[in-house]
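Exercise (ungraded).
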Amino acid sequence: MSGSKPDILWSPHHADRYVICDSELSLYRIGAVGTSEAKAGALPLSQETAATLLAINSDTPYMKCVAWYPKHEPECLLAVGQANGRVVLTSLGQSHNSKCKELVGKEFVPKHARQCNTLAWNPVDSNWLAAGLDKHRADFSVLIWDISSKYSPEAVPAEKLRLSGDADSGMVVTKPLYELGQNDACLSLCWLPRDHQKLLLAGMHRNLAIFDLRNTSQKTFVNTKAIQGVTVDPYFPDRVASFFEGQVAIWDLRRFEKPVFTLTEQPKPLTKVAWCPTRMGLLATLTRDSNVIRLYDMQHAPTPIGDETEPTIIERGVQPCSESVISSFAWHPSTQNRMVVVSPNRAMCDFTVFERISLAWSSTTSLMWACGRHLYECTEESGEGGAAEKDIATKMRERAQSRYGHDTVQLWRNHLLAGGNDPHLRSLWYTLESLMQQYTEDLEQRQQGNKQSLIYAGIKNIVKSSSGTTETRRCWKGSDRPTDVAQYHSEERSLALQLCGWISRGPEIDVEPFLRSLEQEGEWERAASVALFNLDIRRAIQILNKGASAEKGDLNLNVVAMALSGYTDEKSSLWREMCSSLRLQLKKPYLCVMFAFLTSEPGSYDAVLYESRVAVRDRVAFACMFLNDNQLPRYIDKLTNDMKEAGNLEGVLLTGLTKDGVDLMESYVDRTGDVQTASFCMLRGSTAEVVKDPRVQCWIENYRNLLDAWRFWHKRAEFDIHRSKLDPSSKPLAQVFVSCNFCGKSISFSCSAMPHQGRGFSQYGVSGSPTKSKVTSCPGCRKPLPRCALCLMNMGTPVSSCPGKSDEKVDLPRDKKLAQFNNWFTWCHNCRHGGHAGHMLSWFRDHSECPVSACTCKCMQLDTTGKLQPSDYV
Amino acid sequence: MDLHILAHRLRVTSISKSGLQNYTHPLIKLIFLRNRTRCKFFSLTETPENYTVVLDEEGFKELHPSEHLQVECSTWLPLNVVSNGNASSSSQAVGVTKIAKSVIAPLAEQHVSVFMLSTYQTDFILVREKDLSVVIHTLAEEFSIFREEDGESVPVHSQDACNGLERNGKEAHHSTVHPVMIPQNQFCVMSLDPDTLPGIATTLIDVLFYSNSCKDDAPAADDLECIKFFSFSLIDGYVSLVMDTEAQRQFPADLLFTSSSGELWRMVRIGGQPLGFDECGIVAQISQPLADSDISAYYISTFSFDHALVPEEDIVSVTDMLQDQRKDAGC
């Protein structure tokens, strides 16, 4: 203050008013820009708010400090501390308020004049006003005035007043209620909110002292340099901040001997330190000639118990009005994190400190973030109407629940388990199905001592090894007109056609069953084109007619059939010319490729081969029939690479479950994140090279982690079982053994192959086979096994009753399994007590302590995962 | 009660009246240009004989040696008694009186020479640095002693100090009772917001440096009755002024702070001839009887003489008391 540095003060009760004080007091009202209240004279404070000057008071010169009366009534009453130590009550824009009138102008005069450094109203007894003064050799530095007190009882001799200025003794109070702090200066003070009779003073002699007004001779005090700007955290009445030059000290009044911690020192001296009144543990500090307000977030910093722990404080700086230097700032009393800052030239700025945003993903698809006091949740739209595709995590979750990937007999059914609406998955599982059939067949062949196996190799590898291709020129079926179309045959090509699903196993090439199945599914165009590619125009036309006459059939198919029937192989016919130009306008890809085939030159079928809307398997089958030994591998290579790049699962037909297949799957996972499909698919690629690929292992581990995160523990277990069946090397080794107390030998040798991955609360099967279930003594030394803490029977005895059995009676084998589990050894790693797993489970359903009577071990609470419930049920 | 040994290291100097013109530049710098100097402790007292300047080593660098500058050769340390917030002090008396029994008398008994400097804000007891161990040892019983270093108050324990009862190697000689003089002028002790110091700069310069020229107008006959005495100190940012009512009239009334009762003080000047710095017990001689009768006092030592200020209304009893003391000594 003192003329040059304006300070700012919010009204304690009117959230829209504040006072700027430098050489005079100016009252402003803050409002939204553009409202009727904001007139032309309003000063813009931010993009939304502007301030209007309401009143100016320049009655009190030599202002040193100002404090706003804390109660509602009288409003706008201010106490001003002056350079000569007098405290004057004044008001702004309240001329009609009679309540105020009595008080305004009242002066409180110390015995010895010196500067008034600080003022503080008592928060409870609002008549009390504490003034902190500079030191005087014979006087007190803290005077507590009662503003309601009548004028000084002893008449001051008039001539003695000549030094103290005005003679208007009517409004002058000279006798304070309390006097504290002799022979010292008071630089700052505050009332303690816990006890309104207590006052915290900061004196010149480098100490902080707490006085209790009920017994002023006693005080608690501590020596420190940090004696400026003491201020109590409004959210934590024992936490106090004070500063000295560039350093802020945070005190805990309960452990007042030394600061709890000090904040990093600023190069320039501090001018103001203020707790945020609307946000817990947020301290704002300002240094001289700075344009940055530093914020210290002590939210996550509970007062440490020991001396060693250094609490964490998050520090950051805000720059409310870009370049201009800040003279002072004030937090808004009620709006969260809002402050007004004022620059030395009285330019003001309304500013809201933004909270850091913390964000958390749930293991399901929802996302949450917190900003200030608001918590936002973002979840996937679950309604069917949602146009957006479901997130892959949701899909995987649903698929895991529907046992996707677990149908090992009819692989193709897995795409139905996945929902049946993903063409890629459909193609993938059909491919795997045919690959598997091929594989089993191969096994048979191998037993017959046939040539090297090509299992799961994919068409790419199959056609590479193609040899002995024969070229034939067949006639159109049902006519003896020869075609100039060359067809190629070999054993490998037939194998490829089988994998593509066009022909079934066996020596003869017959597409009729395939056509019929397509007809059944209503894929008329596809069936027609397959028929055509097999040079059977008549069959193709027949199929189209059938399609047109079928329920919901497309009558246009008849038109196509008509067009087809006009086929002529004359190179320059009108038919050819029209077909080759008009076919491009056909929307259905299969119709399009039919005419492309008919109109193309022999040996160049690019229009068919590169029609991406046609299924890969059909294009590959077509290529196997019509491309020669040079063209075919080139085409397959190119197509494979395209598929790999796109991550198109149809390409698995080409790559098989080989290294190429992993590459393809990698780009599929990159594109979709579907580690589930990748895991299940690659587990089938039983060659070690594929399963041990680090990428595959990574997908598998991630999928297991996902299942764990969803608490799908049963699904995880099922997956592990599934995995160990397909990849025996993934079987984990036994990690826990039960050894006999007496002889030290393992009592579970008979079932050491039954692993259980360690948890805090370990269980272990005693007996693998029912015949040995009565073993109640160590097989090594014949000493009895320990007793179950609950039934007091020796371990090894079957558990008689199992609570909660009734609702599990549906499935008998499962019931049996559960009963076996109930016999398992279970013990606490901490107290070593235990018993039958079934008994322990039912005990800890209602208890937290160990069942052994003298033992107070909270076994169940030590098990962090024990309390979590799986979210899937077997 | 706490006793603080302040961090300042002080020198006591004197500038002769005739040599003042050689020192006006450093003095003005030390008084008015606080930002230009690192001096934290400055006191200037004008007496009829000379100007006494007490200042810390930073300030002392500004004073260039010359024949007009006399310097006491030792370094002095200021002590300050803090009442430690014991508001229940029964005595209304303030200043030297308050510490007469607890500090002045014990130090006098241990033959420690003290240099007193009272200000509006507090009383400083200056002791020689070499006497510090004796001081600590003597006062440790009565006070918690703190030494201020780099802004921190560090407790000092008497064990740290020398244990031997070093008596300064001097014999006590209580007998010397110095003559006193009681001038007629009334004094006031005041303070000032340091920020408003520029506002009174011209007046202050006038009173400090040109007092002799003004004095010419006054009749010479008054010289016996009134004494020229003006003290200005600027210590740790606090201003203290001691002047007679005549000088006070030259200052604007609303800028100077004083007590609301507007009390006035009379002076007792101790010493017929310059007292020197080695004699001890002088302050005790005066303060002891004042303390006995519970009379407040300021005490300002200068290079040549000591000055005690007592309340106007008590001057008669003080005069009587001092005369009694003189008689006792004479017996």
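Further reading is listed at the end of the chapter. For now, observe: Residues 423-447 of chain A form the longest helix (25 residues). Chain A touches chain B through 47 residues (CB under 8 Å).
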